[in-house]
Amino acid sequence: MNIPEKTKQKTLLLSITVLLVSWVVGYIFLDYQFKNSVDEQLENITESTEKLFEIKVREEDKTIKFRLARIVSADGLSKAIAEADYEKIHSIITPYFNRLKSLNEDVKILTFRSPDGVTLYRAHKPEFRGDTLNNKRKLILDTNTMQRSFSGFEVGKLEMTYRTTQAIFYKNIYVGNVELGVSPELFIKDLNTIFNIDIGIAIDKSLLDIMLNNDKISINDTYTLIKGSEKLRKFFTSPKELSDFRVDMNMPLQNHLSKTLGILVVGFDISKIVEQNRAFMYKLLFIGIFVALLLVIVLHEGFNMMLKHFTKQVYTDHLTGLSNRQALNDALYSGESNVLILSNIKEFSLLNELYGVDVGNEVLLQVAHEFEKFGVEHGFNSYRVSSDEYVLLKEDSNFEAEVYSDFLDELHNNISTLPIYIGKIEETLRVEIYSGLAFDHEHSLEEAQMALRKAKEKSLPYLAYSQSVDTKKNSERILGMKRVIRHALEHKNVIPFFQPITDKNGNIIKYEALVRIVDFENGEKSIIFPDDFLPVAIKSGLYIEVAQEMLSQALSFFSDRDEKISVNFLPNDFFNYALMDKLVTLISKFKTSGKIVIEITEQEGIEDFDRLVRVVERLRKQGVLIAIDDFGSGYANYAHILRIKPDYLKIDGSLIKNILNDNDSKILVKSIIRFAKDLETKTIAEYVENEEIFELLKEYGVDEFQGYYFGRPTDLINS
Fold first, then answer.
1. Across residues 396-423, what is the average pLDDT?
2. Residue 296 and residue 280: Cα distance in Å, rounded?
């Protein structure tokens, strides 16, 4: 039966309609997917740009401070600053500054000032000299007030610069400061190369009156563009002409007080990406139209091709071709048990700095190929998750550390023996890696990072995650304790507790001052002991303040009392000028000499024992008595004891506690007492907790006694 002509026409019209509808729907769908793909790429590039900018600022800040420190330590400079000797400063600084400029063309400013703000010397403009800082910038004022280094972005007359200051001391007296300013180009010029982006700088409009530069473009109600490419400027003046240009303005530029003075403006030209994606889309649609009979198949295959295209863009690292961080996250959250090896290249930032980004990228590429090759051989998937960090991931529900130890040995050997030939510099480089190993769940990457950091700290090639390397909880505890210490210093809650020391008749003849922190949490008073806060205070730079507060209260309280007062010092405390000055000042308030006993904790690894002896001798001339604390605790350098000739040896409490039942402790205590008597040195026994120990020690010939039998440490000042 023949189909009527009208039916054919209707069928043809329906087919054409279906094709047109399919084409329109397909076009809309594809266009939407491509736009999402572009947005995801932009977001990834933006995040990477911001992270790299932050890293660059931190790394360059360290370099600037290091170079400033070398300049400040130049022979004769601090004296020349103190004497305001322009010619001397000029002769010392000129070669440093010339070398600095030759190493880094972005160095703009190097200025030396006196404490009252007078410019002593400008290395960048030595012809100008002797003026006073008209605009009292907070950076300089804070340096003068706190006498320490500060860094941050500053807005000047011509441009925004990143400035770092360094306090200068001569004979422990603050005599001025030096300021180094660099162009922001130092932080952003490499970013253009990595991501092919346009970068500019915008400042807060409230700062415009400071600048003489008239080439400014207002970009919103808050910021004005002062530096940027022609494309960025055109975007803000004629945005309609750049429809395929995107701008991100989320990176703040802050001064040393964390106040935002401006923002980093990042522009992205997406025209090529859009053009490539649209060309790909049109090809698919063209095929779909001309292959109407295979419409479903073609659309299905086209969708698979697009999905593969999107997946590659979203889940692939564009430099190395390995899977990226997003792909790793999906794999970790799949619910499977995995073994994860995280590795990074030793001192890669230094290699990048020495040879440049292009060479660094070539190193990353060749190392990535070696990781991929190793992964294929041993059943691992390979990923690049950041600049120089690689991950090997393998499904494994039966983890055996010994097996993966062999894998890691082989991996490290392969990388360390990999010859990386760089044609650009005609040189073969070799690199090494650190690795962290973790097992089982979605937090494996975080745990491997902890293991990696601990491996670096211990100078080990690799380390597996365990509770002992979990730094998160320990970091939270340290931060909490730092806050407690700072609060205690601010509110005078660092106080001495005093424990009595008696003679053979039980009469109190002196007290030992023991540092405590009184804390009030939720309205309840608690006492924090030294073992809990002193290690944190030492590592965080708060120890000297704690020690000064402790000394001041303890010695002031005993300046008019009859008993002696004993205070504890670490050997390196004697090398701290601020602490020693405080001690000498407090000693002068005592009317009679011989009332202060300084206890030195005997320990291994004293940095400069000869210097320690000289300080002890000077203190002795002021009437201070010397005791060696914890003698017999495991390390005792008898040569050191003989040179110091202490007035007291304090026998370690671990020997006293066990003396009734431990024959070895008795032997050691007796030998210490004999040694002390030969030196004509008195002995003090700690941890005397009952009468039986007291009587036995008197029989052995101990001179003085300390412990709970005679009294616990108490707050005599506030009681």
1. 84
2. 19
What does the alpha-carbon distance between residue 333 and residue 322 come to, in Å, rounded to a whole number? 19
CATH code at 480-706:
3.20.20.450
Both structure tokens of 479: 């931060």
- Distances in Å between the Cα of 701 and the Cα atoms of 190, 276, 473, 681, 705 are 74, 94, 48, 12, 11
Distance CA 311, CA 322 (A): 13
β-partners of residue 511 are: 500, 565
What's the N-to-C CA distance of the chain in angstroms?
117
Extents of the domains making up the chain = 5-54+273-313, 74-183, 186-269, 316-469, 480-706
* Closest by CA position to 135, among listed 113, 162, 117: 117
The tokens for 359 are: 């060479």
Distance CA 280, CA 273 (A): 11
Which range of 233-247, 312-326, 379-393, 475-489 scores highest in mean pLDDT? It is 379-393
Instruction: Quote the tokens at residue 510.
Output: 């002196």
CA angle 160, 163, 165 (to 5 degrees): 160
Instruction: Write the CB contacts of 617 (distance below 8 Å, at least 6 apart in sequence).
Output: none
DSSP code for 598: E
* CA nearest neighbour of 55 among 148, 190, 183, 182: 190
Q: What is the pLDDT of residue 504?
A: 94
For residue 224, which amino acid is it? T
Q: Residue length, the chain? A: 719
Closest to 416 measured CA to CA, from 377, 367, 365: 367
How far apart CA 224 and CA 206 sit, in angstroms, is 10
* CATH code that applies to domain 74-183: 3.30.450.20
Which two tokens mark 612? Answer: 């320690």
Higher per-residue pLDDT: 608 or 343? 343
Q: Name which of 31-40, 107-116, 193-202 the model is least confident about.
A: 31-40
What distances in angstroms separate CA 397 from CA 96, 383, 435, 465, one per listed residue? Answer: 59, 21, 21, 16
Fold (topology level) of 316-469 = Alpha-Beta Plaits (3.30.70)
The rounded distance, in Å, linking the Cα atoms of 415 and 393 is: 17
Q: What is the mean pLDDT of residues 501-524?
A: 91
Rounded to two decimals, what is the model's pTM?
0.43
